[in-house]
Amino acid sequence: MNNTKPDLSLVIAGVNFKNPVIAASGTFGYGSEYASIIDVRKLGGICTKGLTLMPRAGNRGVRLHETPAGLMNSIGLENPGLEVFLEKELPRLRSLGPAVIANLSGSSIEEYTEGARLLDASGVDMIELNISCPNVKAGGMSFGLDPEAALSVTEPVRRVLSHKPLMVKLSPNAPDLVALARACVNAGADALSLVNTFKALAIDIHTRKPVFENISAGLSGPAIRPIALRMVWELREAFPSAAIVGMGGISASVDALEFLLAGASAIQVGSATFVHPATMIEIIGGIEEYMVKHDFHSIGELPIR
């Protein structure tokens, strides 16, 4: 057994992370919301709640619905808009310590590119381009289902970025995920993150109507983990040298290790934080214990087949 403390640090697209555990977008606010509950400084990174150029009120009606092995959500990208984020939220977020990833969404290519231009001149470390959100009627997932559509938004966003690396968040609802990823890589993506939520449906048997006003919503949580893991594996097979950030139902260190061993460069944790806020801290400790037990010295040694 290796008694030397292992090195969990890594670099993704030129950005330094102290460990591979990142708070997923939409589940951790802007970081400061959890600062009084857990030691946020220990995290490798924080991905912001979805940001749009202009403020959004989000979806009406029910927004969260629990399932036996997961959580359905239809938030609708509620956020104060980029101007407020950059002025009020980003300084607090930067002071917490972990790498900062700005999750950027939009309803048009023009909104995406203008948002990217503003973020490129800001203090964020990386931009996660969200082309895979199933909870908004305009834009959102519509860009993330077809390779040509993904190319049409990724390429112009890449062109306006001169300082920040670009990670594209992929939808598991795409008919051909590898083709979609290839389009994003060809358009200049520095990294890929997957998966976003699965499009799902819930019906209230008392009203005999769908629970959500948008009819469908996004499913996350343990139920999707084996499918998400398979998708990460397939992308690693297709893109041996790409930076891949895996997510989907991770709630314990064993889950995170599965993704890392499948080829993920790092992982994001989302819904599990709602259940147990210290989940990510415990996952970091569990990864470290595993590495010590199996004589791994650095996190880069883990993805072995």
How would you describe this structure to a colleague?
The relative contact order is 0.17. The strands form four sheets. An eight-stranded parallel barrel has the order 3-4-7-8-9-10-15-16, surrounded by five helices. Strands 5-6-14-11 form a four-stranded antiparallel sheet, with no helix packed on it. It has a two-stranded antiparallel ribbon with strand order 1-2. Mean pLDDT is 94; it is low at 135-140. It has eight helices and 16 strands. The chain starts with 9 loop residues before the first strand and ends in a 12-residue tail after the last helix. It has 305 residues and is of the alpha/beta class. The protein has one domain (10-58, 75-200, 220-301): TIM Barrel.
Write the layout of secondary structure elements.
Blueprint: E1 10-12, E2 15-17, E3 21-23, E4 45-47, E5 64-67, E6 70-73, H1 82-95, E7 99-104, H2 109-120, E8 126-130, H3 147-160, E9 166-169, H4 177-186, E10 191-194, E11 198-201, E12 203-204, E13 209-210, E14 216-220, H5 225-238, E15 243-247, H6 253-262, E16 266-269, H7 272-275, H8 279-293
Parallel strand pairs: 3-4, 3-16, 4-7, 7-8, 8-9, 9-10, 10-15, 15-16
Antiparallel strand pairs: 1-2, 5-6, 6-14, 11-14, 12-13
